Amino acid sequence: MKQYAIALVPGPVSVPEEFRRAYFENFGSADLEEEFFLLYEENESLLRKLLKTNNAVTIQSGEAMSVLWGALKSILLPGDRLLAVSNGVFGRGFGEMGMMLGMDVRIVEAPDGEFPDLDSIRTAAAEFRPKMITAVHCETPSGILNPVAGVGEITRETGALFCVDYVASAGGADVRTDEWGIDIGLLGSQKALSLLPDLSMVAVSDRAWEAVERTNYQGYDALLPWRDGPKNRYLPYTHNWHALYALSLSLRRLFEEGLDRSFARHDEVARYCRERLGAMNVALYPKSEALCSPTVTAALVPQGWTWNELNGALRSRGMAVGGSYGPLAGKVFRIGHMGTQADMKLVEEGMDVLEAVLKNR
Ligand SMILES: *Cc1c(COP(=O)(O)O)cnc(C)c1O
């Protein structure tokens, strides 16, 4: 398989050797040993600090999508109303997943590269009376960091539950679960935490647990067994001890650096990336600088290039970036600078390669 010296894809991000080494350890059996549960609890308390919450944080095996599905199925029943706030693939995806599950869905869409205005969300919420409102903090395929706090306020006015996907922001951008009124916060391991795509986490409020209990969904991705399972030392499947060990290393490194310093590091590389793109006359996808995510930069494929040509030219010089999906496929390309990839030297090298490729056309 091809290796890229300049890996700037927006996840899964490069995993440092220290975290990968965690997978070579020999542990006991995760369902039986007290040591495993202590590791689980250590991770939970570090995740609470990361996500700024006093709520329980569950840690499941499986890639982040498993908790997006699991949360929807655990909270809502077919016929329940779901309002999805969208300005991209994941925002709309919540609505589409809800439809596939038989829920009554309304999607509030934003104009291209923007966030829906709060009044239109408020009006939709008041009319539709949803049981849950979903939003995405970092809409990765659009390179946008959404102001979800305002949606949290509207959700509280409506009495709905607020579910936020912060898979691609937490660790690289400030996430305030409790202050923003987030009842269900969703996280994965392969973005700013710089781990393999093998763990998914959910911060669950007491109100959300009540809904989970009433819905009583059973299945591999069900949330309910994670409410009392860790306390009772009884989990629904054999957990991934190695991944949890790697998670504890990643979180410890993050707090050694300091959360605020990590956010500043992400801000700096993102700003630098935008400046270099500006100097190359490459337009950003988000309509305003204020919406640009510190973890991923989305730009328009330059005039005179197709995405395939640009991607091929960059890859032949050892650099990997991301394309986009859905309506943005072929039009937008993305530079992932989260976790280990929020590294000024790496992003500098990447921007040099991009500049050379565009000049030598
Ligand atoms: C990466 C990501 C996920 C997980 O999705 P995959 O496409 O399976 O990696 C979920 N939500 C957001 C916002 C993400 O960036």
Q: Beta-strand level of the residues, as a percent range? A: 15-25%
Rounded to the nearest angstrom, the radius of gyration is 20 Å
Overall number of domains = 2
Q: Averaging pLDDT over every residue, what do you get?
A: 97
- Low-confidence stretches are none
Helix and strand sequence:
EHHEHEHEHEEEHEEEHHHHEHEEH
Q: What key phrases describe this protein's structure?
A:
Aspartate Aminotransferase, domain 2, globular, 13 strands, Aspartate Aminotransferase, domain 1, two-stranded parallel sheet, single chain, 7-stranded mixed sheet, about 350 residues, alpha/beta, binds pyridoxal-5'-phosphate
How would you characterize the overall build of this protein?
- Helices cover 42% and strands 16% of the residues.
- With 361 residues, the protein is of the alpha/beta class.
- It folds into two domains: 6-14 and 258-359, Aspartate Aminotransferase, domain 1, CATH 3.90.1150; 18-255, 3-Layer(aba) Sandwich (Aspartate Aminotransferase, domain 2).
- The strands form four sheets. The protein has a seven-stranded mixed beta sheet with strand order 2-10-9-8-5-3-4, with helices on both faces. A two-stranded parallel ribbon has the order 1-12.
- α2 (34-51) runs parallel beside α9 (241-257), α9 (241-257) crosses α10 (259-279) and α10 (259-279) runs parallel beside α12 (344-359).
- The radius of gyration is 20 Å and the shape is globular.
- The chain binds pyridoxal-5'-phosphate (PLP).
- Residues 11, 63-65, 90, 136, 138, 140, 165, 167-168, 188, 191 line the site of pyridoxal-5'-phosphate.
